[in-house]
Amino acid sequence: MDDWWRRVVEVTPPADHRIVLAAGLVAVLVIAWSTTWRFARHVVTVVHEGSHGLVALLAGRSLSGIRLHSDSSGLTVSRGKPHGFGMVATLFAGYVGPGLLGLLAAWVLGTGHAIGMLWGLLVLLGLLLLQIRNLYGLWVVMVSAAILVAVTGWLPASWQSGFAYVVAWFLLLAGPWSVVDLQRSRNRGRGRTSDPDQLARMTWPGGGVWAALMLAVDVGCLVVGARLLFLR
Questions:
Q1: Per-residue pLDDT reduced to its tens digit, 160-177
Q2: How many Å apart are CA 232 and CA 218, to the nearest integer?
């Protein structure tokens, strides 16, 4: 146990800027290539729905469960007032969740705790698993956790650090990309049940304004996160 804890809190040497840049390019390829994005977007959905659930609990709502679907959509059900700050915050959290988690990951990497960051993500997946209410969602979370277990259990520290940088870049980039993808669907007349459109029905700003706010948060996280990744 002591050896395991030492590995988790171990401070890794600063990554060369070329490694940081290469990790970013890998993340870009994963998102830009439709074949890999088809699978990777499920990870974004996990973070999206997990963000809904976390903020719902923080806002004092009762979380009923989370479902993840094969088309990479998801559903987080919480009970409480159908309007007000708690509901607005819960709906807003989904599309900014990946960017904010990526920013947190970049900050942790900046402190030199790449391996600890991966274990932190594994703990979050374990907590999320308790709220999953369908078999496909269980499968997605378990596969994601299995990949992290394999990386942290079998790869050398240098490879774990590189993988951690890829994950951080992926989250930072996937945040704004998901909002842009959503807006394309909205422009085609789809996605009218999306988070921005639900927010528009309970507040005075329109869905486009809410989508722009979400994009602004994600872009801000990307800019600050990228600076943190290169700073060390």
A1: 999 999 999 999 999 999
A2: 22
Task: Assess if residue 161 is contained within a domain.
Answer: yes
Counting beta carbons within 10 angstroms of the beta carbon of residue 84, is it exposed (0 to 12), middle (13 to 18) or buried (19 or more)?
exposed
Is position 198 within any domain?
yes
Structural domain for 194, as ranges: 39-231
Tokens of 147: 């990949």
Give tens-digit pLDDT for 201-212.
999 898 999 999
Contacts of 164 (CB under 8 A, 6+ apart): 105, 109, 114, 115, 117, 118
Say which residue the tokens 């915050």 belong to.
89
